[in-house]
Every structure is written in C-alpha cells, then in structure tokens.
Amino acid sequence: MINKLRLSFLASVIFFISSIFFIPLQSSEIKTQLILLGTGTPNAEPQRSGPSLAVVVGDNSYIVDFGPGIVRRATALSKQWEGSFQALDPENLKIAFLTHLHSDHTGGYPDLILTPWVLGRETPLEVYGPKGLSKMTELIIEAYKQDIDYRLEGLEPANQYGWMVNVYEIEEGIVYRDELVEVTAFKVNHGSWDNAFGYKFVTPDKTIVISGDTGPSGNLINYSKEADILVHEVYSQAGFEKKDEVWKKYHSTHHTSTYELGEIANIIKPGLLVLTHVLFWGSTEKEILDEIHEVYNGPVSFGSDLIVY
Hints:
This protein is α/β, with parallel strands linked by helices. It has a single domain (2-302), classed as 4-Layer Sandwich (Metallo-beta-lactamase, Chain A). It has helices spanning 9-20, 70-75, 103-106, 109-118, 133-143, 145-153, 218-224, 237-241, 245-254, 258-268, 285-293; strands spanning 32-38, 52-57, 60-64, 95-97, 125-129, 165-169, 173-177, 182-187, 197-202, 207-210, 229-235, 272-279, 300-302.
C-alpha cells in the first residue's frame, strides 16, 4: 500500500492547464474568510492549539500549517458539528500548504492525512511545502502502515484513496491556482532554515498574506503591499529583554518583535494586521498590543483559536 504514495503527474498537468485558463469568479459571487485554527507556539498553552489556519473561499478550504489539534479545531466550526463551514468538514480538508518543517507546525500532519480519510475523504490530500516534505510524508505513511492496511483489508468500509498524499515540494513563486484562489510562496528569514516560506492568497475579494515563522523580512514586505489582511507572528519586546544572550540571539534571528512588526506594518499598511504565534514571555495581550501601537497606528487584531475574519 505504501507504494501508492505519489507525486501525481496527472495532478501537475491539471494544475498547469488550470493556470493557463484561470478565470477568477467575480467578488460578488464569492466570500473569503480567514479562520485561525491554532495560534500557538512550541509552548504547550492549553487554550492555543498548534499553528494552523484556513483560508475559506466559498465552499473550499485551504489549510496553512498543521500543528497539533488541527482536525478537531477545524471540525469545531464545521457544518458536521453545527458550525457554519461545510468547507471545514473533515472530508473537505483536501488542500494544505506548509510554511516550514518545524515540529510545532507539522505535529498534526498524521492527523490531517488519516482522520479525514477515516471520516470520509475519498481523494488524496494535496500538500504543498518545502524540500523535505516528501520524505516526511513517506515516513508518516510508513509509520501508519499497519493501521492503513487494516482499514483497507479488514472489515471497516474504508475507501481506497483518501489516505494517499500528493506532495509538491515548492520554490518561490506561484505554487497553486484554481478558479477561486491563486497562491504564491515567498521565502522568509527563519534563522538558518533554507526553505521557510510565507504565502500570499489572492481570491476574488481578498488578498491575505501569511508570514509563517520569520524575522523581519524584506521579501515579505515586497509580497504584502496592499494586503487586506496580514497574518504575522510576533514576540513581546519586554519579555525578550528578560532573556539571556543565547536565547536573544536565537529569537532575534528567527522571529519578529512587536516594535519590528510595527515598523513592517507601517510600510505595508494592511487593511488589518492579525497577530498569531505570539511569544508572550509574561506579557499580557494588552501589553503586546501597546508595544505595537507605540510604532503603528493601524488596525490590529490579537488572534485566538477559532476566530473568524
């Protein structure tokens, strides 16, 4: 069964054809919503699941990152569980994008592969992300081989394809396009990671930019001009000042302070700045917002799990 894991040539051809004939729907016909599924960090905060969000366009969902708890967070807002979003029903979690391979962003990957299949997804999961994602996927499938084989060959009425994954290891540029959305990947500055990406989603009615984990990034600024929503990670400057020099060196090269983010937002001028993956380090939400507003006067929303924009 494991050999059925594939980089689908047919899917690549379909993507190429769709990119040629891409005709977006008019904004009056469609509505785009941003949903924060998990807003946490490697710190095990009980109220914040691992990093993940969904861009929902009409009846389609596009997942970015898959931290721990992703499927249950999605189903909390799904039609199946009396929520508003059929696009978040487990069987409709079909397309995902990964910013980088850190464990807090990938801990929910087996869940995203297997649980929607068990609950009815009939087509392979399509996943776009950095180099190394194919190997990670292969090893996850191998680790769950006995489970997959038992469901396929035992008494459970499991379908044949929903556990499969089509992996696309990406470079900077347009990585996905359909009739609802165009997705562009761009490299960001997450320490020494060679392949850490942010994503820009352009839909009929919104432009949404997701930073992923990053220090201040000129590349992000270039891709974020005129964004309706900028979703960006951040850390408390006051908390940073209490760190020892080793951790200061790490965080200053891997993440973005409140003051730095305020300066970035002043350049980009997004319609709304949404904070996620927040490193509090003893600060409150108000104190973090106050730090940003010392530099930036535009609208800022402090993200939390299951908030909808």
